[in-house]
Write a structure and sequence with these properties.
The structure holds two protein chains of two kinds. Chain A is α/β, with parallel strands linked by helices. Chain A has 17 helices and twelve strands. Chain A has two domains: 198 residues, 3-Layer(aba) Sandwich (D-Maltodextrin-Binding Protein, domain 2), CATH 3.40.190; 208 residues, 3-Layer(aba) Sandwich (D-Maltodextrin-Binding Protein, domain 2), CATH 3.40.190.10. In chain A, the strands form three sheets. In chain A, strands 1, 2, 3, 4, 5 and 11 form a six-stranded mixed β-sheet that branches. Chain A has a four-stranded mixed β-sheet with strand order 7-8-6-9. By secondary structure, chain B is mostly helical. Chain B starts with a helix and ends with a helix. The relative contact order of chain B is 0.11. Classes of the chains: A alpha/beta, B mainly alpha. The interface between A and B is large, with 49 and 46 residues.
Chain lengths: 440, 312
């Protein structure tokens, strides 16, 4: 009897424990006995990594979440997630239906994640609950989802690209910041001295996100949209090819350190700029943190809008940033909306924009991420007048990865000595487009 | 009458004895079903449906696509099928080179370190370091060493006057060779360990007898060592083949989700389709094709070599 009983008990225990694993909640949210929006509720919040490290983010957000708890009685369980893992974690949560209550997303993913149907649409009542649509900067609010549908995310931190230049290097060369792309190219050549290891421009040449961002911005300058009006990819139009060429030519023309083709983690190109190894840097405004961390003073650099070629459209950036979403199946919808309202309130924005070097998402708010008033004004002006959203289509994230990686390969080709021709660029973009077609 | 209870007890014990092995392996079977077989079945189902981003929140609503994902993968005249074929070819070349080099290095080191000499223990330990080191740490260290500007590899090559020290090792065609070298570095200690264990089972008397008969070192290796190591080689080469063909860590840690074309091996290619393009149906179809290929190759390998072993 004993012989039979022991294995049977072991098997039963195994089955029970396995079943228990399957049945456990991965949501992490718990209702501590309180109501939906009242005291005792615990929200799970996945924050994206905005500062120089995950620990820095925890230190920044911790006191704010305590403040929120004090105001509302709602506790927030914070998890800061690094960028390389964030999208896959969101996809896994979407697939299993067991995600956080509130989360940050890259605003360019908003339409793709909207298509999954996993996020709560911000309809008129949800918008009212978070303080209304009118509190947001319109350009930032427009990134919340595809046109014609209720957005499934709202802006939290706004970012735009600008052209950083080293004041001392420019002054020594007798140059002024460029106002056209042609001037930028001439300046970059003058400022390059490969033997001394200094270059005209810093580049994150292995980063697919940077590659697709600049391909898009320069494509826009040439009047090209990556998707046609019906949402179909149109990557091989002359304007798209010209936009990619404009970016890749920086490497082909040798005004960029060839080694930067391997830079892909974020801080390398700003590091080169901060250390005086490059005279210019095209980056989002949160590069300020890295520049200061690398020992550069804010007075040592200036910022202007990235210029367009003469006679072309004056687009200098896309509307970059971080949005906030609420998982549709949250058990604490009201509490989650209260938290979104808190995080996007002018008071909190004023606090969070400083450590995260972000532009405010509130209409009419003054940027305070830098003490350099000229820099703040430049970035605010770029966001208000020279920035357009990336394509608001459901397969936007696939566009980013496929085109971004195609451009990375072209930069690699240029770095190893063979400047890509227009037909090389067209072929690479065609291949990226074919991959999109396969994904349906 | 009196013997009945005894018979009953014996029957009970017999049943228990018969069932005990099944109870003992039951946990392993249950976990195998849950961890491997069930996901595999789900993967096969996914390959027949259009599971894209629009349906991942509710898989059951994904439209039935039949064999269209398989047709797309196997249509080598289309860019998608062509890139799948290219990835398959790169993987085959990668596997042949890595398994071949790992076996050769492992065999050579095992033959040398099998003999008794001063410092043998030190070398045995040293050679096992790559195998003992956490995979990610090892590959990340390599990726630092292979950097163009401040990588150790370029520095050494320049110091030796072999190059100008400005070679790219992680982009273009060099990316493939970097990946092969790292995989060989990581795999050969396993071959070394297995073969060393195999060598220790060959009695010294056989070598002594061969020596007396005038057999030199090469003849001893050819006629004694290699046949004696045959069972070890049979299993080890198969394991190395399967591990290398499915290798994900080396390319992913070195290059990320989108490796250079020269290093686009199949596991990362499938990952890209699933997690970059969010087409989990197509990614699953390619996975099923890969599984079928590996099953056929493994089956054929075992059939051929087991037959030969029986004949021998």
């Amino acid at each position: 009897m004993k012989t039979r009983l022991i294995p049977a008990l072991v098997v039963a225990a195994m089955v029970a424990s396995t079943a228990a694993c399957g049945g456990s909640s991965g949501s992490g949210s718990s209702d501590g006995g309180g109501g939906d929006s009242g005291s005792g509720t615990t929200l799970t919040y996945w924050a994206s990594n905005q500062g120089s490290s995950i620990d820095v983010d925890k230190k920044v957000l911790g006191p704010e979440l305590k403040k929120f708890e004090k105001q509302t009685g709602i506790k927030v369980d914070l998890q800061v997630i690094g960028w390389p893992d964030l999208l896959n974690k969101i996809l896994a949560a979407t697939s299993s239906g067991k995600g956080p209550d509130v989360l940050n997303i890259g605003n360019t993913w908003a339409p793709s994640l909207q298509a999954t149907g996993a996020f709560l649409p911000f309809d008129s009542s949800a918008l009212t609950a978070i303080g209304g649509k009118s509190k947001f900067v319109p350009a930032s609010f427009a990134t919340g989802g595809v046109k014609g549908k209720d957005p499934t995310s709202v802006p939290l931190y706004s970012l735009v690209y600008g052209l950083y230049y080293n004041k001392k290097m420019f002054a020594e060369a007798g140059l002024k910041p460029p106002t056209t792309w042609e001037e930028l190219q001439t300046d970059a050549r003058k400022l390059t001295d490969a033997d001394k290891g200094t270059y005209g421009m810093a580049m994150e040449g292995g980063s697919y996100t940077e590659s697709v961002h600049f391909s898009f911005i320069f494509g826009q300058q040439h009047g090209a949209d990556p998707f046609d009006s019906s949402g179909k990819p149109n990557f091989t139009s002359p304007g798209m090819v010209a936009g990619v060429k404009q970016y890749v030519d920086l490497m082909s023309n040798k005004v960029v350190n060839p080694s930067s083709v391997q830079y892909k983690n974020g801080p390398e190109a700003p590091g080169d700029f901060a250390k005086g190894k490059a005279a210019m840097l095209m980056s989002q405004n949160n590069a300020d943190n890295t520049l200061v961390a690398d020992g550069m003073k804010t007075s040592e650099y200036g910022v202007v809008a990235i210029p367009a070629p003469t006679g072309k459209k004056d687009t200098a950036s896309f509307v970059a940033g971080i949005n906030m979403s609420v998982f549709k199946n949250t058990k604490h919808k009201d509490a989650a909306l209260k938290f979104v309202k808190f995080m996007t309130s002018p008071a909190e924005q004023k606090i969070l924009d400083v450590p995260f070097a972000a532009l405010p998402v509130n209409a009419g708010a003054t940027p305070n991420f830098t003490k350099n008033a000229a820099e703040a004004k430049t970035f605010q002006n770029i966001l208000a007048t020279k920035a357009v959203p990336l394509p608001l289509v459901a397969n936007e994230s696939q566009y980013e990865t496929n085109v971004g990686n195609a451009v990375n390969q072209l930069i690699a080709q240029a770095a190893t000595g063979k400047a890509p021709s227009e037909s090389d660029i067209k072929a690479a973009l065609q291949q990226a487009q074919d991959k999109m077609a396969s994904a349906g | 009458m009196t013997s009945r209870p005894t018979v009953k007890r014996a029957g009970g014990r017999g049943n228990a004895r018969r069932l005990t092995p099944y109870f003992l392996i039951a946990p392993a079977i249950i976990l195998e079903l849950l961890i491997h077989i069930l996901p595999m079945i789900v993967g096969v189902w996914m390959s027949f449906v259009g599971l894209t981003q629009a349906f991942i929140a509710n898989w059951s609503t994904a439209p039935w696509k039949g064999l269209s994902s398989y047709k797309l993968a196997l249509d080598f005249s289309s860019p998608i099928g062509n890139s799948f074929l290219h990835s398959f070819e790169v993987t085959c070349l990668y596997t042949v080179l890595v398994v071949g080099c790992a076996w050769f290095l492992g065999m050579s080191a095992a033959l040398v370190l099998h003999r008794n000499f001063r410092g043998r223990g030190f070398f045995r330990t040293l050679f096992l370091v790559p195998y003992a080191m956490p995979i990610y740490t090892g590959i990340m260290t390599w990726s630092f060493m292979l950097q163009r500007d401040n990588g150790l590899v370029n520095h050494v090559l320049k110091s030796l006057g072999l190059t100008n020290g400005d070679s790219f090792w992680l982009i273009g065609s060099n990316a493939f060779w970097s990946m092969v070298i790292i995989a060989v570095w990581r795999s050969w200690p396993f071959a070394f360990l297995m073969l060393l264990a195999g060598l220790q089972n060959i009695p010294d008397d056989v070598y002594d007898a061969a020596s007396v008969d005038g057999a030199g070192i090469w003849k001893q290796i050819r006629y004694i060592t290699m046949p004696a190591l045959r069972p070890v080689n049979l299993v080890m080469v198969l394991m190395l083949f399967l591990w290398t063909f499915n290798d994900f860590n080396t390319p992913f840690v070195l290059f990320g989700a989108q490796p250079p074309k020269s290093a686009d091996i199949i596991s990362v290619h499938i990952y890209g389709a699933s997690f970059v393009n969010w087409d989990f149906g197509f990614g699953s179809a390619m996975s099923v094709l890969l599984l079928a290929f590996l099953l056929v190759v493994t089956g054929a390998y075992l059939l051929i070599f087991n037959r030969r072993s029986r004949r021998a």
